[in-house]
Amino acid sequence: MTVSVSSSAQEQQFLQAFQQALESQSFDRMILSQYQGELEQLEKMTFRVVMLQGQPVLSCLYRHKTQDVTKNYSLDTALDTVTALLAQCKQANLMTTEQELQLKKNKKKAMLTQSKNKTVTKAVEQQGHDRVKQRFVDQDSYFLQPLGITDAKAHIIPSMARALSHIQLPEQLRVVDFGSGKGYLTFALYDYLLKQDLNPFVTGVELNSKMVEFCQEVANKSDFQQLDFFQGDVRTYQPERLDVMIALHACDVATDFAIHTGIRLNAEMIMCAPCCHKELRPQLKAPLVLQPMLQFGIHAGQQAEMLTDTIRALLLKAYGYETKVFEFVALEHTSKNKMILATKRKDYQAPDVAVLAQIQALKEMEMKMPSLRITHGTWEELQHAAKMIREQVFIQEQNIAAEDEWDEQDEIAVHFVVYEQDQAIATARLLQNHSIGRVAVLKSHRGLGVGKVLMQAVIAYAQQQQRPFLVLSSQVHAQAFYQALGFMQEGEEYLDCGIPHIHMRLSSIKKP
Ligand SMILES: C[S@@+](CC[C@H](N)C(=O)[O-])C[C@H]1O[C@@H](n2cnc3c(N)ncnc32)[C@H](O)[C@@H]1O
């Protein structure tokens, strides 16, 4: 419907609609553009209602050529402010939950166009009973256009905003988004944190180099100076500090490596929305009573998903995190709508052994995970078991010469042996110079996480002994395994007994 009458009557009608929308709480936003006033740099103004200290206010983002300025007005004086500004603009657009009004002015006349609003989004939160709307992503931000950001992604921010308000924030907030993809959340979050004056340094970590290039370009064009993108596997990105760790729908075990990095670096907040749960599914061994249920593929998938996410949540709990698991968005946006949100407890001192035992019990019941016992001791105490494993793994399987395998270091090293019931299945040794070596798992027990349990025991021992660091020489094929435990590559590859190796170091082994 288009009406054309005198300029002032049209303006009056527009202002009345604005005031009415505020009063009936149907106001969504308003944009005044083609500014003709005295402020040379001013391009347009975007108005929204936001909550400040529990009170709704009219917030205006003044967009200038080189900077944005936000001013807030009480709702009582909003009409006066808008009336004065509207008189200086050639175009105005009002969006309410029901309609869109567009006012266009030229020298001769004004046009007021009214249409039904189909674009008002649901990415707004209800504030108690007053239904005043608050947006977490500014709909006019430059990055929305190239990214094509959706409300489903912006939905994550309210949950994070609530969690952030409960943690102690440092002067610079270091955030890493693992598996950042096209950067939807990375950008939205950076924008949000910047507007909250939290001095964010945000890094998106992504395997796909094209996406990394694209996102970096958009970040540069948006003048987001503290937002960058790292191309590589989540395992290879090892920051020194991390306050907020995010992994949104990162594939396969990328979520788990990200959680590990978050826990290891004592992140204040860890948030992930898991995606695939393929890792545990082949390892599921249903207890007899559950077999009728899990014979159906869909149920086995759901069981693997629940087990995976339960273990993730329990691990976070065990390592001192207040952990919640919930649905963050309606199913119509994405079926992958589960979020694990964890914030570090201030009173955390040591891993909760009761929770770790719960995880172990779950693994024993639901997976082909053996029940393990780990012991450490001298060569005299453990040589029988350690020799048997190393003989099988290094001498027989890898054809390492016996004179290279056995050396005088065994006498002075601390040895570790993993037992399944009474059978020794894995071993490692720790030298006085903090070097871990001779890590071996029997072939029959590989792929079940035994090596990881063994290495965690060695690291825990080193922590107790207050060793300053740990080093090891990894066979190149096992590099990713050690990276996931926090070890970083040092120097170039080299050959040892004809097998390619690489030096690796765990610099920080203070208690998690
Ligand atoms: C489903 S997308 C999610 C992207 C983004 N977080 C989002 O929600 O819009 C998963 C992304 O994780 C990346 N990815 C998967 N495994 C990764 C790994 N090991 N290291 C880094 N990125 C990984 C993929 O390339 C992909 O872009």
From TrEMBL:
InterPro entries per UniProt: Acyl_CoA_acyltransferase, GNAT_dom, Methyltranfer_dom, SAM-dependent_MTases_sf
GO CC, alphabetical: cytoplasm
Domain N-acetyltransferase: 372-509
UniProt GO molecular function: acyltransferase activity, transferring groups other than amino-acyl groups
CDD domains (UniProt xref): AdoMet_MTases, NAT_SF
Origin superkingdom: Eukaryota
Protein name: N-acetyltransferase domain-containing protein
